[in-house]
Amino acid sequence: MEYIRVHDIADPLFAGLHQLMSEIFPREEVLAFDLWKEPLQDPDIRVFVAVHEGEVVGATEYRYYVSDDIAMTDFTIIGRPGLGIGPFLASRREADLKQLAAEAGGTLKGMFAEIYDPYRAKDHEFGGVKPMDPFVRREVLAHLGYHRLNFDYVHPSWQGDGEAVSGLDLCFLPYQETSALPGSFIAKFLRTYYSVLEPKPAQWTEMVEMLERQDSIELLPL
């Protein structure tokens, strides 16, 4: 299996990636095909596909924030069962992030991720691929070491319609032992991560302002 970075929507591998996203994720979570042109050319956004026998069978997007030594996993997609795609993507992504941190003279502190709560979002079928079932994914991510941050989370819809998307937890995978994160640290990350997406829903703005007033937000088991 190959781990290949995608830089351009004209790359045939991107067509396979976008098709996987459209099959796996709800509509409000998927950016339109043409709107990927600029993100793919952004050096800070890393989009990689897992290619097996010439076919895109998985993908992951993530980014590293040098100033805070943290990463964000935008998504991980497993398109076919029985190939070990999940462990392949997770290990390659971690190695890439740790190399980026080392090259920047830092040490990776941890990684944020938005993780579906299947007990609230039971209508997501995720393309019928069992490894993408939200119950399975949540358990796997828990075993990887992710914890949920203890607050009610929403994010702006990627459709750019100003709607708030719920049914997810904001989670964090710490690489250094900790039981909480400063609220201001989380708020700074969210303002940076969603800076390009407008308009922002009022619920999101209120949530971020609440975080800025909190000394710490507890990390809880998934």
Reconstruct the topology from this structure.
Blueprint lengths: L1 E4 L6 H13 L12 H5 L3 E8 L2 E11 L4 E9 L6 H19 L6 E7 L17 H11 L2 E3 L5 E2 L7 E2 L2 E7 L5 E2 L1 H11 L8 H11 L4 E5 L1
The general outline is globular
Supply the helix-strand structural class. alpha+beta
Mean pLDDT: 91
CATH topology name, in short, is Aminopeptidase
Distance between the termini: 30 Å
Please describe the biggest sheet, giving its number of strands, its sense, and whether it closes into a barrel: 9 strands, mixed
Q: What is the CATH class?
A: Alpha Beta
Q: Please report the total strand number as a whole number.
A: 11
In CATH terms, the superfamily is Gcn5-related N-acetyltransferase (GNAT)
Question: Order of helices and strands, N to C?
Answer: EHHEEEHEHEEEEEHHE
Strand content: 25-35%
Characterise this structure.
The protein has 222 residues and is α+β, with helices and mostly antiparallel strands. It has a single domain (2-221), classed as Aminopeptidase, CATH 3.40.630.30. It has six helices and eleven strands. The strands form two sheets. It has a nine-stranded mixed sheet with strand order 1-2-3-4-5-9-6-11-10, sandwiched between helices. The protein has a two-stranded antiparallel ribbon with strand order 7-8. A hairpin with a 2-residue loop joins strand 2 (45-52) and strand 3 (55-65). Helix 5 runs antiparallel to helix 6 (202-212). The two termini are 30 Å apart. The mean pLDDT is 91.
